[in-house]
C-alpha cells in the first residue's frame, strides 16, 4: 500500500472512530440520566410502570448502538444458527451461558437479543457502580452486582460468604417480577492463550468453567425459567478488541444458540454444602463445556478450511 493510501486509510479510521465515539457517548448521556432519575423516583414510589419505562429506555439505548453497527459496519456478516427447540420471545424468562473472548461479546449478545429476547442482565462487579450513568443503570435495571471477596477475606470473616450468597439470591429473585435474560460467562474471564496455558485447560477453545454461580442461579430460578440457553460466539478473524470491532476490522461473527435440558435432580441440591451434589453438578457442566468445545472447533473449521 502506498504512503498516500495509508494516510487515507488512517484518516478514514480516525473519522470512523470519532463518529462512533461521539454517538456512543451521546447515546449514553441521552439515556443514562432518565434511567437514573426514574431509579431515584422508585425509592419513594415503587411502581411497576417505572420498571417498564426503564426497560424501554434501556432497549432504546441498545437499539441506537445496534443501528450504529449497521450504519458504520455495513460489510459485517452475521452467521446465526438457532436450535429449533428454542422458542425465544420477548416475554420469556431465560438463563444463558456463553463463552467469553472479548468485550465485544456483550455487544454481540445485545445485537442478537434486542428483537428476540428480554433485556439481558449479567452478573457484574459491584465496583462498576462507580462508572457514571452506566454503573448506576446496571443497578437500577436489575443487574446482579456482586461484592466479590477473596478466599483470604472469607477465611478471615466467614460471614462474607453468606452475605455474598444472600445478595446474589436477592438479586436473582428481583428478576422474577418481569421477563428477563440472565447471562453467565462461566469462564469468569476472557479467554487468552496465556490463561489457557496457565490453567492447563482440558478444552481446546475454552477456559475451565466456574460452576458455582450457575448452580446458585439455577437453584433460585431454575423451575421458573422457560429455557437454559447456550450461546456460542466465534470470531473467524480472531477475537477483536472493542476498538477493532468498531473500526471495521471484523468481517464476520458466527453465533450458535441451543437449548440445554435441565435434569430434575439439578434443581434440588445444595452446591455449597453437599459435596456429592457439587461433584455431580460439575460433571454436568463439564459435559456441556465438552460439547461446546467441539462445537467451536466445528464452527471454526467452516471458515478455516
Q: Could you explain the architecture of this structure?
A:
The protein is an alpha/beta fold and 305 residues long. The protein has helices at 3-42, 48-72, 104-113, 134-140, 151-156, 159-174, 193-199, 212-221, 242-246, 275-304; strands at 77-82, 93-98, 120-122, 124-125, 145-146, 180-185, 227-234, 252-260. Helix 4 (134-140) links the parallel strand 4 and strand 5. It starts with a helix and ends with a helix. 27% of the residues are buried.
The total of beta strands comes to 8
Class by alpha and beta content = alpha/beta
Biggest sheet: strand arrangement: 1-8-7-2-6-3
Low confidence ranges: none
What's the story with the biggest beta sheet?
Answer: 6 strands, mixed
CA distance, first residue to last residue: 28 Å
Strand content: 5-15%
By DSSP (H or I, 4+ residues per run), the number of helices equals 10
Domain count, please report it: 2
Fraction of residues in helices? 40-55%
Rounded average pLDDT = 86
Q: Give the ordered list of helices and strands.
A: HHEEHEEHEHHEHHEHEH
Name the overall outline: globular
Query: What's the gyration radius in Å?
Result: 20 Å
GO molecular function: acyltransferase activity
InterPro entries: Plipid/glycerol_acylTrfase
Protein name: Phospholipid/glycerol acyltransferase domain-containing protein
Domain Phospholipid/glycerol acyltransferase: 94-236
